[in-house]
Specification:
By secondary structure, this protein is of the alpha/beta class. It is built from 15 helices and 21 strands.
């Protein structure tokens, strides 16, 4: 029983309410992940809103967790997925048949170690990638499949609510970044959140009347069905592509962040928003309670609108699909692995002083291991159980600038590629790992150089053969000219083609 003496005076917000409300104020920076509460009942209610997915489907071999930044904080990566499933009443908003949906919206949110900057990286749904081993409902794991559409990972196993773990595995294999949290939002949840904040300001670049979606040109406030139509529509804008749709999604999220941050600690907005947000979320177990969400979001409350940016991973059309542009995509992932902003600066340098920021800009994104070392001893072992794959990998590395490559004997079968390195070769091993997305890195005191033991996740057509011999030191235009600050004008850069 609650001790009456311990309760706050009438009219004074409870510590729990203040804590959750502050978290909700910060939540827009993580796409409204936070919650707001007004007492034990509401906290209990929010807990029962949240759904979690089975963490057993997350790959056992993963990229290492990010190291703390110079300022002491640790970078955090959050994968945000929008499910287009028509089940559970979602068909009333979008039509179509029921069943497992795709993750037609995917954004990797990188929260920098200073917890004052963040960047959202949009991944086109049609991007051709290798889908690594993923767990099926019968407990078995699939084999890797190259040249698959990115959004199909969500359907592996045909789980009723999709397979977020498989999409997370795919992102980790693609980027070499460890995904700390994964969040899935459906149509109903998205619409409810926009209504909870009483609408979001948007700009429609032209009149749209296509595929049942009608939008009028100009600045306006949208919520519910209209808001969903704005972020879902492809046809009627530019070339009708997913690329243009992502531009509007980035602008919409910027506006939503601005709206939520502008509300401050207003319970009239935050409590309905917390209820709507938690009802709409399927999350990993580490975010599976209202308090866990609140603690996480509260750590982000110092991120300001101007310090949030969005970018689409460098891409090009490949027939009707999308292929990544190399080496530009690798450089984007490398910037995030180094916890550098998209202009090549360290957030620690930006926070220190103008002079340190200036010195950093002299050599953006430069790294001691930015180019392969021709005489680095690299031994390739084939543990994939696919004959001839070791030779293919060795030949691909030679083509990329590694000249001292030795093909060793077949190794014991492995699911995931392993890169072992001598104590003084960590930088070289990390550079080599860009050609083997998702590989495990492990120090080996007895090693001479670097040893690559191929696993069943290795797909030469989508990894080593496509990668370049070195990452350039200049920021590619596909990144520099494709970055949107969250405080940009609503009407700028809203379509493609």
């Amino acid at each position: 029983m609650t001790d009456v003496k311990s309760r706050p005076a009438k009219g004074t917000p409870s510590p729990l309410r203040v804590r959750l409300a502050r978290a909700a104020g910060a939540s827009a920076a993580v796409l409204v992940l936070a919650t707001a509460g007004g007492g034990a009942w509401f906290y209990w209610h929010l807990d029962h809103n949240i759904s979690t997915f089975d963490a057993d489907g997350i790959a056992p071999s993963r990229p290492p967790a990010a190291a703390p930044a110079p300022g002491g904080g640790r970078p955090v990566n959050v994968l945000v997925l929008g499910s287009d499933t028509r089940d559970n009443g979602n068909d009333s908003l979008a039509g179509g048949e029921g069943g497992v949906g795709n993750s037609d919206t995917a954004m990797l949110l990188h929260i920098y170690g200073d917890h004052r900057h963040a960047v959202g990286v949009s991944i086109p749904r049609d991007t051709l990638v290798t889908i690594p081993p993923c767990k099926l409902s019968n407990g078995k794991w699939t084999t890797p499949h190259a040249n698959q559409m990115f959004n199909s990972a969500f359907t592996i196993g045909e789980y009723p609510q999709g397979n977020p773990a498989c999409t997370q595995n795919t992102v980790e294999a693609l980027t070499g970044l460890r995904v700390d949290h994964t969040v899935v939002v459906d149509f109903k949840g998205f619409a409810a959140m926009t209504e909870a904040v009483h609408g979001v300001d948007v700009c429609v670049p032209n009149d749209v009347d296509s595929y049942g979606i009608k939008l009028a040109k100009g600045r306006q406030t949208v919520s519910g069905q209209q808001a969903l139509d704005y972020v879902r529509a492809r046809h009627g804008f530019g070339d009708g592509s997913d690329i243009g749709r992502m531009k509007r999604q980035q602008a919409f999220l910027s506006s939503l962040i601005k709206k939520v941050q502008g509300e401050g600690l207003n319970p009239a907005t935050l409590l309905p928003l917390a209820d709507a947000a938690t009802k709409s979320l399927t999350v990993d177990p580490d975010l599976g309670t209202a308090m866990k969400l609140a603690d996480f979001a509260q750590s982000l409350q110092n991120i300001k609108l101007k310090d949030i940016s969005f970018v689409t991973v460098p891409w090009r059309y490949s027939g009707e699909r999308v292929a990544l542009v190399h080496p530009d995509a690798e450089q984007l992932w490398n910037l995030l692995r180094q916890d550098d902003t998209l202009d090549g600066h360290s957030t620690g340098q930006l926070a220190a002083s103008p002079s340190s920021a200036t010195s950093a800009s002299a050599s953006p994104a430069a790294s001691p291991s930015s180019a392969p070392t021709a005489d680095l001893p690299v031994t390739v072992l084939n543990g994939s159980r696919t004959g001839g794959l070791g030779k293919q990998a060795a030949d691909a590395l030679r083509a990329k600038g590694y000249q001292n490559v030795t093909l060793g004997p077949d190794a014991t079968g492995r699911r995931t590629t392993l890169i072992g390195y001598a104590a003084d070769q960590q930088g070289a091993a990390e550079q080599l790992a860009q050609y083997f997305p998702g590989a495990e890195l492990r120090a080996d005191a007895s090693a001479d150089g670097v040893t690559v033991t191929l696993g069943r996740d290795y797909a030469p057509d989508d990894t080593a053969s496509a990668a370049p011999s070195a990452l350039p030191t200049a920021i590619p235009t596909t990144i520099a000219e494709n970055t949107r600050s969250a405080d940009s004008d609503l009407c700028s850069d809203l379509s493609f083609g």
